[in-house]
Amino acid sequence: SNVLIQPPSVSVAPGQTARITCAGDDLGSKTVHWYQQKPGQAPVLVVYHDTDRPSGIPERFSGSKSGNTATQTITRVEVGDEADYYCQVWDSSNDHWVFGGGTKLTVL
Amino acid sequence: QVHLVESGGALVKPGGSLTLSCIVSGSSFRDDDMAWIRQPPGKGLEWVSYTTRSGRTIYYSDAVKGRFTISRENAQNALYLQLNNLRPNDTAVYYCARVGEGYGPPFDYWGQGTLVTVSS
Hints:
The complex is a heterodimer. By secondary structure, chain A is mainly beta. Chain A has strands at 9-12, 18-23, 33-37, 44-47, 61-66, 69-74, 83-91, 96-99, 103-107. In chain A, the strands form two sheets. In chain A, strands 1, 3, 4, 7, 8 and 9 form a six-stranded mixed sheet that branches. Chain B is built from no helices and eleven strands. Chain B is globular. The A-B interface holds A 30-31, 33, 35, 37, 41-45, 48-49, 54, 84, 86, 88-90, 92, 95-102 and B 35, 37, 44-47, 50, 59, 61-62, 95, 100, 102-113.
């Protein structure tokens, strides 16, 4: 089954750039989505289909992929960006959706 | 703006049953594929089930297959999840979500969730 590996935590100072990775077998052939979840709230889609951004999501949020690793990049990080971030793919081999374990972004 | 509201979460004993509901507004519900995702307390997200707009194609995670049933009533803009033979590790916040477009689609809109607690 598909497993997506994320670092448990990433720390960054305000104004700096945060990069959160998501690694998985055959990720290059899958489309990756990213969600932001703040404490006590539902997840929000922030990047979809590897690089696209839903309307209303700031341009500071972007996605990329190289080989079997996808990366979500947040530029000019703000205190309000502190949240858990999850990557997600659809596994066509068994018609299952898979989430990464999540990364807690701390803004120092 | 698409709005999803879940209900039906409760405290239930192991082996018990429960039905969750999700009412959707702001979209053409009958044209939307839908899903349930859960999140145990303090843990990550786990996909549970998916249904196409017609309800003819349905998928379940291995953890719930044979115990949970997803269904929908398009005339009522309603999505359901029946949970049977509940176990303590089914304890979680259950979210309904709209499935977006494209190959390997994302979950583009989520409800606020409803808490299911399985405990004796």
